């Protein structure tokens, strides 16, 4: 009987395992784990604090460890591998897809890598050399080599008999690749075509020879965009001479899409996108401190700017009370623009042709925002402090800062991208620096000029 | 000849079309568009400012308009449909998949919807009623009904002849579904199985009857998590009685994954995740103003808190200079925790079992962070202002605020989730309010108590 999934199916399971684990029922946990598919074991490990993770891993059936490692998020996997015996790592990688195999090997510290390599047999050592030869984050590193190739001049009947002889197709196969004698890629034949067309036709007659192949050096985000746009399930990868090297399947692309989308969000908070939610305290603190350090410098810089106006602040302490409002609004408006542009760059919507239009648009929004919120804050402050001059000063500062926020929000990511710096990582800090400095300067500067007795 | 994709293939094309468009060569543009697949036309439209978008749309071959609409992002699609004649909308939706069909119908204003429905033939009107009956953002709304079903007691040979007779399979078909006389789902047979197993076997002998079916009411994010974890290409959808309704394919799931991942990032900046990068200025300004308004209230609240200490600020203006540092650090530390927890909730890693552990961890990080940055800022301020008492005061405030940031960063999203409020949308503002108020209160309060002469 097929089972209908309950909404919280895996949650219940997770809860049970956790309970059994905490009451020390290890045998029970081991039995439960033996009945879970590797993807669910991986999910369970990812959802566990690092201490229970170590215990859980010991209870995973060694035959499932390889597949489970494949399914794990990078950060969690590295943590587990670091505690494993090199010989066990070598054994676990044996059944892995090429792309996961390469990823695991790349994540190993040099000394461990040598030990793991030493525990492998000759074939695996050779495979390691091949998979590591492709540059990271390219189509070559994403692909696996388990493709089925056929020649253009045979009939479908021959192909059908050949497949029946094989008895099994590699997982996720939706098409066979047609190559010539030199292994040059000519086109592909969908499984659906094999099933629906007359067996007496030749491969050449039914193959799709307009089909696009991915060059091995293409970046993984471009690969992901192509898959997404064309609704591909798999795609062939070729080298510079047009020879077929392997294929990329949608499941690996889904990981890239998820990672890319999360990357922007995580980077904007100064986090690594593979950051493990359940990492130990000290490790997490260390990782996050870089970002806090950078921000401290920004904050001190802003304080330094405010320091120019110390005497003004002493005479008019109300300025100190209101001083946070303008920078805060600038930060929000700027980060809206920044986020939109970063997303636009990530999904490939922004290019040289529309860049100028976009800059114009965001600056216009900055000015419009500036006018709206200047009028509002002027009214609030004038009524609150019963001082229309103060209202005018803060209105002017607000307009200037929202205008600056629009300009900075759109140009910073575009410039960073030109310089090949990740806009999601560096953009926020630079933006905040601009909006803080402009905001403080505009407010306290104008106030010093117009309000001092 | 298959063509190897260049890195910037679509970028070049885009650039050419834009150039031709701006020089008014409409005939040329129309010809170029006629040779582009709908997915590339959609990408081009999404990457164009809204004015050129309208012109471009007029130049798209009406036969391709339906498919192009299917590929477009929601916001862009709605903009285009709003300018189309209802009869043309009805014609364009005819060839759409069920899920896109429902999405387009849902996006129409009531009056236009009635007109579009009026232009449809009877069959399409009935289809509209069916697809709209599934709740939005559920498996039912994601699925399409073009499945191929077979009976368990026939031989593969019969199935093969049946498929050959059909001549074509629905796009993205990787498995056939096995149902009984009452259309109850029994299991599935992969196309690969059909190709590799002996034709004399029956469907029952080769089918996977452990295969999981998705209930139609399951939320789309759960569906996406299942696909991602199990590396599915398609999955059957059943109703409460176990009857097969349709299937969900990976391409629609990829859209959900992309949307979900982007949703968090966009929401955190107060943006709609379907926000169109190239929307007109006024529309964008209006959309973003809600968030700026909420933030203004927060900023004024913070100013109000600072207002309690106006006389202190007048006596010690250096406090005004330094007042931004502690809230700023609290905001960053808190948003790191917040982002991590929001991501953890989104990917399903956080549950009742590990929640307490996570809270403990983030509070511990908050305290550790507090100690580190308290010592650092104390040193900087003491040396800068040559005033160790001031250093101690700001150190105390820093510790308190980073501790508060850790507590707030982890509890706010968990509580919001319990209350069924989107943590990505509301979390940031609540967090900033906490870190601003605590930061200002701790710093100016302690200073008033200890430093005033």
From TrEMBL, chains A, B:
What the protein does?
Answer: Acts as a magnesium transporter.
Q: Where in the cell is it found?
A: Cell membrane; Membrane
User: Which keywords has UniProt assigned to this entry?
Assistant: CBS domain, Cell membrane, Magnesium, Membrane, Metal-binding, Transmembrane, Transmembrane helix, Transport
- Keyword Cytoplasm in annotation: no
Question: Which family is annotated?
Answer: Belongs to the SLC41A transporter family.
Metal-binding recorded as keyword? yes
Q: Which PANTHER family match?
A: MAGNESIUM TRANSPORTER MGTE
One GO cellular component, as annotated: plasma membrane
CBS domain sequence ranges: 143-206, 207-265
Species of origin? Pseudoalteromonas piratica
Q: Name one GO molecular function term.
A: metal ion binding
- Which segments cross the bilayer? 290-309, 315-342, 363-386, 392-416, 428-452
One Pfam family matching this protein = MgtE_N
Q: What is the protein name stated in its UniProt record?
A: Magnesium transporter MgtE
Quaternary structure and partners: Homodimer.
Membrane topology per the record? Multi-pass membrane protein
